[in-house]
Design a protein that fits this description.
This protein is of the alpha+beta class. It has five helices and eight strands, in the order ββαααβββαβαββ.
């Protein structure tokens, strides 16, 4: 019996971890990591401070049968590591496209984890996309390097609203044809 709640979302293997569907038991580590303002500030949707029930609602949406985003835990246990090192997701767009999103727990920054997770997701292409997009805040050059390292091309500048910052933030947009 699988501990994963999402039966139609594949597990994707990488060298140091697996990308697997979220579980209810991930809520504690997600709350711990997203409670760090450094993580929340580099996303559009994570509030800071995190309101009660927000993480549980996030996991609930992630495991729902009717969802517009597939969300994977970056799970290091196959290699003897932490059960949750971060999150990576694909939000469905129209015309056979998706938008990639990810965050990595600060404990695992500068280890190549984000690049390896994105490379594994692109290689697996679980939604059989023709194109993947990503948006990165301009004050997050580390994530911009992850995008270019994984073959994403710069498209242009824009801005996105950040819940934790309560402001529009300048962004760089990237795409990768598959």
């Amino acid at each position: 019996m699988s501990l994963d709640n999402v039966s139609d979302q594949p597990v994707i293997e990488a060298n140091r971890f697996v990308l697997r569907p979220l579980r209810d038991s991930d809520s504690g580590l997600i709350a711990q990591y997203t409670g760090d303002e450094r993580v929340a500030r580099m996303t559009t949707s994570i509030p800071h401070p995190m309101p009660p029930g927000a993480v549980e609602a996030f996991v609930g949406r992630a495991v729902a049968a009717e969802r517009d985003e597939d969300i994977w835990a970056i799970d290091g246990t196959p290699g003897g590591g932490a059960e949750l090192k971060g999150i990576i997701s694909l939000k469905r767009l129209d015309r056979n496209q998706s938008e990639v999103g990810f965050w990595i727990a600060p404990l695992f920054w500068n280890t190549g984890l984000a690049s390896e997770a994105l490379a594994a997701l692109v290689a697996a292409n679980p939604l059989d996309n023709a194109t993947m997009f990503a948006v990165v805040f301009q004050d997050n050059p580390a994530s911009a390097r992850v995008m270019t390292h994984c073959g994403f091309d710069y498209l242009g500048d824009a801005e996105s609203f950040s819940v934790s910052r309560n402001a529009n933030v300048p962004t760089w947009t990237y795409s990768r044809k598959l």
